[in-house]
Amino acid sequence: MLLNLRPGRMAIAAAGLAVAIAGCGQAASPTAGPAARTPHSSATSTVTFAGYPSEGPSYFFPLYSGAYWDVGYVPWFSSIMWRPLYLWGQNGKAVFSPQHSLAAAPKFSTNAAGDTVATITLKTWQWSDGQPLTTRDVEFWMNLVKAEKANWAPYIPGRFPDNVKSVAYPSARTFVVTFNAHYNSQWLLGNELTQITPIPQHAWDKESAGGPIGNYDRTPAGAVKVYKYLIGQAQKPATFATNPLWQVVSGAWAIKSFDPTNDYVAFRPNPHYSGTNKPRYKTFVEVPFSSDTAEFNSLEAGQLDYGYVPLNDLNTIPQLKRKGYKIEYWAQDTIGGLLLNYAPNNPGAPLVRPLYMRQVLTHLVDMSAIKNVFEHGQGSYASGPIPNPGGNNPQVTPYARTDPYPYSVKSAKALLASHGWKVVPNGTTSCAKPGTAADACGAGIRKGEQLTLNFVTNESTSLNSEVTDMLKSDFSLAGVQLAIKSVPASEIQSSTSNCAWPHKTCNWQMEYFLEFWPLGWPGYLGAFSGPFGCQANMWWCTPETQRLINAVHDSSNPNALANFENYIAKEQPMIFLPIPVYRVSAVRKNLMGTAPQDPYLDLFPQDWHYSK
């Protein structure tokens, strides 16, 4: 995990990886928590859903500081109660969702100064206490974020809210955001305006538990006091279900009960929910488990309505179907693969800097085998920075849908030989012609230097081990040797961080962490800087990369995102790999409305219902 631009992204990556690709261990009896029950009857008033193993909600206030931004539970906990202004993910596709958003799509214009202006109209919506949701609630959120932006986890200096010149609130349902320059409207909708989450000013604008509701947020000092009070309340898990603050919600569900000792959480319907689909059952439960094994045991026992099958247990799917479950593959909007280390203090960095070497490495990766064998035919692939969940993301260009450097040991050998390497299949290839000429090894590579790459991988997943073994074997066919070190995920993160400090040891050239960058709230487009560009920690900082990223942010060119995507696919600054499904979901056959599952991992349990 490389990035520090968006605090908390590591949390969802680690959680998603544990769920999606961890094998079932040999251990454990199930610990399903209070929701474990007898097999489902269609007359029940409860739907049970398998939560993250060993991870539950730790914070309540939908204005996340870096310390509490557990993104894994934003879509499964916070946003089902407090709806963001805009959500993406529509009918299983990675696109803007008018259906699930609190406002109509913004109308963009340009003022006389050349600044982009977004005019936004809220839908007719109510809070759970019957009060209308208005632009005052948007203003309340904006004032708190502006006063406490340093504590707003997605904050990037110079971006939102720094790039907002002014906000006007001409009516209860319309507000106008004027930005400080011209920006790409697609990027604003996908990565900036999505950060806004209206919160109930009429219930939360107070400075203490016993204090009156006021307009304190309208002064910077007052906004700080309100924020401190709210965040103080948000840090008390034992009161999540009893604090009246958290009962005022805009989503379809409100908190009913929560046990911080085991992360059991239950929700009740919001009686004033304004969305199109109203909840049709009385309780939605996210069931806690200590491990994938415990979850699977509970699923086999018929104690879950909506669970998942670990990849190592896919052979049990016929049995689960006989027990009344249907299988739904949950594609995720994620990029990942083999990270290459360009850090200045990495002595092996010259080996991966030349484009021809990245082409060689990509030619040695059998994408088809990873997708069809190791990911059971359910993986999704794009060769660039825009994920392609389910193979149907319209943002992915035709070029990036294909492998620009398909598996070919012959092509890899030819490229090495034409750039001054003595190729030794099943041995170790070495540089025979150093230098920077077109037919030489490249800058910084010495004569006789061997083509051995230090390769760090996550030890905790069987899929990583299987793919790593295949890579080592296939790379050796061209004399490229991998010196593999398997470590815990936390050590991968620390080894990466070390490369940012010249005095730290940084001696790896390749790293395998499959779920490298999950996209989703509040950044839905892959060119929001991501792992590439001069603001990122991947040390891939080229003028052309940064120019193309800036164009996605700032230009009106409708092809800006495609241009960036195609360039990264061609350059392969990281070797993109097929992404496994997030989960192999097992759902009661008569539980309708669960498919297609959201590629950004959002939950919409108000859409679910049991057939008669």
How would you sum up this structure, described in words?
The chain is an alpha+beta fold and about 600 residues long. It has a domain at about 335-575: Dipeptide-binding Protein, Domain 3 (Dipeptide-binding Protein, domain 3, Roll), CATH 3.10.105. It is about 25% helix and about 20% strand. The chain has 16 helices and 22 strands. It has helices at about 10-20, 75-80, 135-145, 185-190, 200-205, 220-235, 290-300, 315-320, 350, 355-365, 365-375, 410-420, 460-475, 490-500, 545-555, 560-570; strands at about 45-55, 85-90, 95, 105-110, 115-120, 165-170, 175-180, 255-260, 265-270, 285-290, 305-310, 325-330, 335-340, 420, 430, 450-460, 480-485, 510-520, 575, 585-590, 590, 610. It has a five-stranded mixed beta sheet with strand order 17-16-18-13-19. Strands 1-10-9-8 form a four-stranded mixed beta sheet. Strand 16, helix 13 and strand 17 (about 480-485) form a beta-alpha-beta unit. Helix 15 packs antiparallel against helix 16. The protein starts with 8 loop residues before the first helix and ends with a strand. Mean pLDDT is about 85; it is low at about 1-45.
